[in-house]
Structure formats: C-alpha cells, structure tokens
Amino acid sequence: MCLIMEAADDHVVDGGVLAAPSNFSMVEDGIYRSGFPKPENFGFLTTLSLRSIIYLCPEPYPEENLKFLEANNIKLFQFGIEGKTDPPTPMPEDTVLDALRVLVDVRNHPILIHCKAGKHRTGCLVGCLRKVQSWCLSSVLEEYQKNAGVKWRQRDLNFIEAFDTASLRQCLLSIMYRYHGYGFKRKRLVHEEENVQTLKPQAAKV
Amino acid sequence: MCLIMEAADDHVVDGGVLAAPSNFSMVEDGIYRSGFPKPENFGFLTTLSLRSIIYLCPEPYPEENLKFLEANNIKLFQFGIEGKTDPPTPMPEDTVLDALRVLVDVRNHPILIHCKAGKHRTGCLVGCLRKVQSWCLSSVLEEYQKNAGVKWRQRDLNFIEAFDTASLRQCLLSIMYRYHGYGFKRKRLVHEEENVQTLKPQAAKV
C-alpha cells in the first residue's frame, strides 16, 4: 500500500520525485515564489495547479516555458524589471504596483511569482504584499532576507520600507465590488467601513 | 476607505501592525513553521486561525503561551526533542515520526510547527514531510538550509536523507479509512492502489 499527499499525485513517475524550482516557497494560500523554473521543475509546478505566473524580468520567456504554460492553461503576466546591478537600476514603484494588482486578485490564483533568482525583484514584490497585509516592517524584512540570503540588498529593504500601499486601495476596492454578491469562494479581502456608508463590513466580504 | 486582506482583519489595533514570530514561513496550505512565538506575536498568530501547535522542545511551555492557546482553543502537541549541541543529541527518529503523524492529520490543521529557533528540529520535521510529498532531496535540503541560514547542520541533512517515510504509510492509511465517505472537505490524501482491492483510487480520496 502506498499513500502520498495529493500534491504528489499524478505527476510522479514510478519511483520519481518532484524537483521544486530553486528558492521555492509558499507565500500565502494560492501564492508561491521561486527562482526561474527550468523544465525539470515542470512536474513539480503542475502539482500547484497554477492559474497564473508573474514574471518580473524584461527578457523574453523561454519557448519551452511558454509551451508548458500553454499546455497547462497558465496565464503569463510579465513585468519587465531590470535586474542590472552595475549601475544599479532603482526598483520601479509603478511596475511593482501593477504586479501587486495582479497578485492580490484572487481570480489569478494559484499564482507563482518569479524572476531569475527569486531574491530581489520577487522579494520586493512579496515585501510590498506583506505591507498590504499589515505585517510589521521587521517581519517583512526578515522574510526578504531569508529568501535573498547573503545576496540581500540594502536598497531593496529601503524600497520596501518606502513603498506606499495606499495606492493599492482603489484596486482592492474594485475587485471587491466586482465580486460582491457573486458567491466568489475565496474570502481573502475584507472591507473596513470608513467612508463608505452603503456597505457594511460583513456584507463586503467577497 | 481602507481595504486589507483577511489575515489582517480583526487583529490589527488602530494603526497597528502584525509581528510574525521569528523565522516564520508557510509550509503548505494549513501548515506553518516558525521560531518560538513571543507574546508580541499572538496577534499575528490569531490571524492564522490555528487549531494546533507542534512544539518540539522538552522544556515546559510558558504560562502566557498556554493561556493564549486556551483562549484560542488551540491544541498543543509537545514532542520533547533535545536541542543540545555539546555533545550533539541525535535527532530521535521515532519522535519525529510521531510528530509527523500529527502533522499530516488534516484534522489538526491549521497547524504551526515550532521549536526554539525554527531551524533544526522544525527543519528536520518539515524535511521529512517533504519526503512524504515526494520532493527530491536537493529541494528538501535547499528549503532546510534557507530556513537554518548559517546555522545549518550537516547531521540534520543526514537525518533527513536517511529518514524512512515508509513507516508513515500505515498512519496515512488509517486517517484515510477514518474519513472515507464522511464528506471530509480537504482532499490532501490520495490512495494509490497496490494491494488494496476493495478501494479504487478515486474512491479513496478523503
């Protein structure tokens, strides 16, 4: 008799094992992060039942990865953020905000965020998400550093600290309105009554 | 207007933030890991809606942590594994197996695993879980090392590599039988037909 967890179900060949992409972690229910997935990681990725990928590099997506996405009906959201360090390119706040909008939209989940190493660009995006989730800054930075290892960059920490999450509010609000009352299953977004008098908090759960 | 994700809902005081326990990470849907939670982390932990905690140290659980558990109806599973390094205590396979049995039982989820630093004892337990999930050894060890940082120990890697997951099969089988047909929601365990003729794979999903 052999029992295994569902994640390892159909995608393990006889005696086979699952190779996670480098620097893989689960961020939240339905949100994952990693370094660049290689073909040997496709079996593992299939177990995540991904609906989307957020790719944070400007370079074109490799042909074999595109084929994998097509075969598994995975949507690609590319946000071309330069990874050059000489001279260092500042993290573009608007682009990170655009990526964050895609990330918090549960219609895109399960979703994988990746760049090249899964450390800096991915780390900044996840750090901004944590701020939206009201994580305190030291927890946010600890998570960034754990995933960046010895390659952590002070300017990434500065970017995360300075990032203003207020600009995301309108986006979250629009998602909520779109799903309000339509029986959407995932209760990930809540509404705190402040200026809106027409919706009560419990009614605003999507 | 203010919109925040559900995890940050009721437990944020005005203008407040959530402090995750040190070395906190999500392992799987419903499984978390961290270092020892302090009272300042209780607000954060409440957002996880924990049903159980696996505590891997022999020292008694602090009174204030016990009160927090009682107030939030969280069950404590303590497995006293020595953390001494001089002389180093070998990781006890039977105890890790007992903890793993609790960990894979979805009736205990959401569950938090912690020891003191969330690096060695917790890392070994999570490593064994990954083997049950058919992760390849290099992925398992990369995750262990990412969470242990510079404190990683070769003997932990050896322990994880040598750990025999076959002994967990009977436990998983018993959980499956207990829930088979009872409409249990979480489809985390699957059954691969091998010697059991009375159950078909699809019928065996719990």
From TrEMBL, chains A, B:
Keyword field contains Nucleus: no
Catalytic activity from the UniProt record: 1,5-bis(diphospho)-1D-myo-inositol 2,3,4,6-tetrakisphosphate + H2O = 1-diphospho-1D-myo-inositol 2,3,4,5,6-pentakisphosphate + phosphate + 2 H(+); 5-diphospho-1D-myo-inositol 1,2,3,4,6-pentakisphosphate + H2O = 1D-myo-inositol hexakisphosphate + phosphate + H(+); 6-diphospho-1D-myo-inositol pentakisphosphate + H2O = 1D-myo-inositol hexakisphosphate + phosphate + H(+); 3,5-bis(diphospho)-1D-myo-inositol 1,2,4,6-tetrakisphosphate + H2O = 3-diphospho-1D-myo-inositol 1,2,4,5,6-pentakisphosphate + phosphate + 2 H(+)
Ranges of residues in domain Tyrosine specific protein phosphatases: 94-126
Matches recorded under Pfam families: Y_phosphatase2
Enzyme class: hydrolase
Cellular component terms per the entry's GO annotation: cytoplasm
Domain of life: Eukaryota
This protein's record includes keyword Glycoprotein: no
Signal peptide: none
Matching InterPro entries: PFA-DSPs, Prot-tyrosine_phosphatase-like, Siw14-like, Tyr_Pase_AS, Tyr_Pase_dom, TYR_PHOSPHATASE_DUAL_dom
Residue stretches making up the Tyrosine-protein phosphatase domain: 23-172
E.C. code: 3.6.1.52
Coiled-coil segments: none
Gene3D superfamilies referenced in this protein's UniProt entry, alphabetically: Protein tyrosine phosphatase superfamily
Alphabetized UniProt keyword annotations: Hydrolase
GO molecular function annotation: inositol-1,5-bisdiphosphate-2,3,4,6-tetrakisphosphate 5-diphosphatase activity; inositol-5-diphosphate-1,2,3,4,6-pentakisphosphate diphosphatase activity; phosphatase activity
Family indicated by similarity: Belongs to the protein-tyrosine phosphatase family. Atypical dual-specificity phosphatase Siw14-like subfamily.
Name of the protein: diphosphoinositol-polyphosphate diphosphatase
Organism ancestry: Eukaryota, Viridiplantae, Streptophyta, Embryophyta, Tracheophyta
Gene transcribed to yield this protein: BnaAnng12750D
